[in-house]
Specification:
679 residues, alpha/beta, Rossmann fold, 5-stranded parallel sheet, 28 helices, 49% helix, globular
């Protein structure tokens, strides 16, 4: 059918008998069945035989869109350029051309395209306003990624055009966090603080406050508002009725969906895991949805798994059909709410069991993620109420690779601009994790250990200067704040031992950066809270065998950092413990982690076969969200609040007195309601 439709359309196109409207209709029909290559070919044939058509520029535009969908960015660039040449005032082509330049890594050309749209648009009409807003949004997003200070201005102008843009607000909040502002969120451009906070992203809220119920509620709201559902929800996955488990566990087909199986934190962590999977127990599929980058990590993973499928150019429905056709039993979401994620793909339920693991530090708050993998430290049993998924636990949540490449270069402190005789406190977390509460603790540590410096990963210029000036205003010399340049990962690892101690951030702690420090023998001091992101580092420190560096209070955190800063012998004892235990520590026992992971997969499959697949519970999350956005999270650190749950329960009781609320099994139960009502 598709072949006949395509052949007839080509014949008419060659004879100049296929109108543009007919062309678009046929192309849409062919695209709907996943034949994107045929779509591009049809446009190419039509263009080559209809060069005088007055709508040629629009067809070039659609041709470019189809080439982009087929991951042919160079071809798409040329087609957009031709559309612009024919009709210089066709602004959608300029905007999309900028996106293609971004994809090709030519960021300056992308910025030029979007600036051109912003500066050249004629009078005020609904179309020009829309195009200008779109160009400003793209401009701000890309400038944000390269830490350009003008990103905020572009996004602010975009917000002036339309204040109801959740994605723009999310990017602005992320910029403010990376700038280390305090407070981070204040009324802006006529939008109140609560309304800004209403649109905070799941990743940003993890760095904003140690409020795991708020984190869950934000994920749920984001999932409903920004991810949504593909049309035809439930229409893709059709599963046989659950069957009794076989006498011998079946060889499960495990699919990992990730954009980060490359030189990325996730790629560095998981490369060793893929090599150790037991092929008698699992058949491993990797569904890659990231940028077209070929590097040594990608090559290593490709060489160690059974099937590599690039779904980057596939629609969600086409990718879902691929996963179904591959017969995947358990599909693992290794992105969560991170860049290049394909969350909507999971809403199509292309596998019987869907798992959230490693890519995102918290609950997905979706209706279709059945399990979340953690460990007993990150999610103790008492904290399961903060997760929509059923919790499964490894000995240590994080995968690690014992074959990580470390440069053989021998860096000196002088090479890194560090004083030879000082105590070097380090933290290589991103600046968005450095809250005012955390930084004030670091300032106190520096003030109590005079011969010490703080070695941070270089952020944008505004953040670097702000942190330095905060220190100066509190009596700490500016030169005691030292910034590390970005370098190759193997060089980055090699310079870690120049530090004496690694100081964790809160509430979003170190994850890969902590395991890097521990692997390289640098002790890590951490202050865990209640949330997933705040407890990962504690899990890693415990699993590395130095759990006594997990601090229960901010005061204990400062005291321990000061104590070790003043006592070189104690610091060296911790380094010796790390070095001596590296070959036996649970954190770096990749074989144990893989065996445990495969056992969890068998447990999940047995539950599915027994008809016990867990369904996410999402009751009242909108109400929890409304309560949380009224809290002043920057006035008081929730990590230090002892009556955390009671604060929510009092709010729930008040709302229930106005309009009854159904029980949810979290913080609002019949027992709680009766107690607060005096019953």
């Amino acid at each position: 059918m598709v072949a006949t439709l395509f052949a007839n359309a080509v014949k008419k196109a060659i004879g100049q008998d296929l109108s543009v409207m007919e062309l678009l209709s046929v192309a849409e029909q062919i695209k709907s069945v996943g034949e994107r290559q045929l779509v591009a070919e049809l446009y190419r044939v039509w263009i080559s035989h209809n060069a005088e058509n007055p709508l040629l520029f629009a067809v070039y535009f659609n041709y470019a869109v189809s080439l982009s969908a087929n991951a042919d960015l160079a071809g798409a660039r040329d087609a957009y350029i031709e559309a612009v040449r024919i009709n210089p005032d066709f602004f959608p082509a300029h905007i999309n051309l900028g996106s293609v330049y971004e994809g090709l890594g030519v960021v300056d050309q992308a910025v030029n395209q979007w600036l051109g749209v912003v500066n050249k648009l004629p009078g005020v009409t609904p179309d020009t306003i829309s195009h200008k807003g779109n160009a400003l949004k793209q401009l701000g997003r890309v400038l944000e990624q390269i830490n350009d200070v003008s990103a905020e201005n572009a996004l602010a102008r975009c917000l002036e055009i339309n204040k109801d843009q959740s994605d723009v607000i999310q990017h602005l909040i992320n910029i403010w966090q990376k700038q280390c502002r305090s407070p981070v969120i204040v009324p802006y451009s006529g939008i109140g603080k609560a309304d800004l906070l209403r649109y905070i992203s799941p990743l940003s809220v993890a760095a904003y406050t140690d409020d795991p119920m708020f984190h869950l509620a934000v994920s749920h709201q984001y999932n409903k508002r920004d991810v949504g559902l593909e049309p035809g929800f439930h229409a893709v996955g059709h599963w046989a009725p659950p069957a009794l488990p076989e006498s011998e566990p079946k060889r499960l087909r495990i699919g990992y969906v990730s954009s980060d199986l490359r030189q990325h934190a996730i790629g560095f962590l998981t490369a060793g895991m893929f090599e150790l999977h037991d092929r008698a127990k699992v058949e491993v599929f990797a569904y890659y949805c990231g940028p077209a980058i070929a590097d040594d990590i990608t090559a290593r993973i490709k060489g160690s798994i059974d099937h590599w499928v690039d779904i980057s150019a596939m629609t969600d429905k086409v990718a879902a059909r691929q996963i179904i056709d591959d017969g995947i039993d358990i599909l693992v979401d290794v992105n969560g709410y991170t860049k290049f994620a394909r969350t909507k793909l999971f809403s199509l339920k292309p596998a019987p069991v869907i798992v959230n693991w490693l890519g995102f530090p918290g609950s997905m708050g979706s209706a279709y993620h059945n399990y979340i993998i953690a460990d007993d430290y990150i999610i103790p049993e008492s904290s399961e109420i903060y997760y929509a998924e059923k919790v499964k636990r490894l000995p240590c949540y994080q995968a690690n690779d014992r074959k990580r490449l470390v440069s053989d270069r021998k860096f000196s402190r002088q090479d890194m601009g560090l004083p030879e005789d000082a105590v070097i406190y380090s933290c290589f977390n991103g600046t968005h994790k450095i809250t005012n509460f955390t930084y004030q603790r670091w300032i106190e540590i520096l003030s109590r250990v005079p011969n010490s410096v703080l070695w941070l990963l270089k952020g944008n210029g505004e953040a670097n200067e702000r942190l330095r000036q905060i220190a100066v205003r509190q009596g700490i010399a500016g030169e005691r704040i030292i910034y590390a340049e970005m370098v190759r990962n193997q060089d980055h690892l090699a310079r870690y031992p120049l530090a004496d101690l690694f100081l964790d951030t809160s509430p979003y702690g170190a994850h890969t950066t902590a395991s890097d420090a521990l692997w390289m023998g640098v002790p890590v001091i951490t202050l865990p809270g209640r949330s997933f992101a705040s407890r990962v580092c504690g899990s890693l420190v415990r699993s590395a065998g130095i759990e006594d560096l997990i601090c229960a209070t901010p005061e204990a955190y400062v005291a321990r950092a000061v104590e070790l800063g003043l006592d070189k012998a104690k610091r060296e004892a911790y380094r010796a413990r790390l070095a001596g235990g590296r070959d036996t520590a649970v954190l770096f026992d990749t074989a144990l982690m893989v065996r445990s992971l495969e056992n969890l997969y068998q447990e999940m499959w047995a539950e599915y076969c027994a008809g016990q697949l867990p369904e996410p519970t999402l009751t009242n999350l909108g109400i929890y969200h409304d309560i949380a956005i009224t809290e002043d999270h920057e006035a008081r650190e929730l990590l230090t609040v002892e009556n955390y749950q009671e604060r929510y329960q009092m709010n729930l009781a008040y709302r229930n007195s106005v309009s009854p609320i159904g029980y949810d099994g979290r913080l609002w139960t019949k027992e709680v309601a009766d107690r607060l009502a005096g019953g």
